[in-house]
Every structure is written in structure tokens, then in C-alpha cells.
Write a structure and sequence with these properties.
Largest sheet: none
Strand content: under 5%
Structural class: mainly alpha
Helix content: 40-55%
Number of strands: 0
Shape: elongated
Length: about 80
């Protein structure tokens, strides 16, 4: 097989934001890795480039939704000690 230039293999489309940390947050219903909804993940390959760009632009606004924590171990220990 002859050597083909890299341009043949590159596609002119919006890359997926997937970072392979695929876990859906139980309350927010978005992926904790890429911040997309289940529907956005499932439909990504069929989305028009304009829609992909719109999703990509919205992702940074979703990050704070995952920053809120319920406390975890530190909160339980604090509650036990009465602090």
C-alpha cells in the first residue's frame, strides 16, 4: 500500500470532548468526564458540526454543577463530633 498523506485520514469536524472517564452523575445526569448528557453522547456521531460546536461551547458552564459535594467522609466525621 502506498503512503498516503495525513490529510486523507483527518476529518474536518468537531472532535469529541470524551476523556474516557465515562460515569453519569446520578443527580445532574451528565458525564463527569466530558460533561455531556446521555443524549449528546449517544447522538454525537450524527450531530451536525454546528450543533457539536454549540454543545462544546456550553460544556464549561456545566462544570460547576459537579463541583458541589454533599460532604462525604469529612462531613460525616464533623457531624459525629458536633463541629
Amino acid at each position: 500500500m502506498r503512503d498516503l498523506p495525513d490529510q486523507v485520514w483527518k476529518r474536518n469536524e468537531v472532535e469529541s470532548p470524551c476523556v474516557k472517564l465515562c460515569t453519569i452523575h446520578p443527580t445532574e445526569r451528565i458525564c463527569v468526564g466530558c460533561l455531556r448528557t446521555i443524549d449528546e453522547i449517544a447522538g454525537w456521531s450524527r450531530m451536525e458540526p454546528e450543533r457539536r460546536r454549540a454543545v462544546m461551547a456550553e460544556l464549561p458552564t456545566r462544570a460547576p454543577r459537579l463541583a458541589l459535594r454533599r460532604g462525604g467522609r469529612a462531613a460525616r466525621l464533623s457531624a459525629r463530633s458536633g463541629d
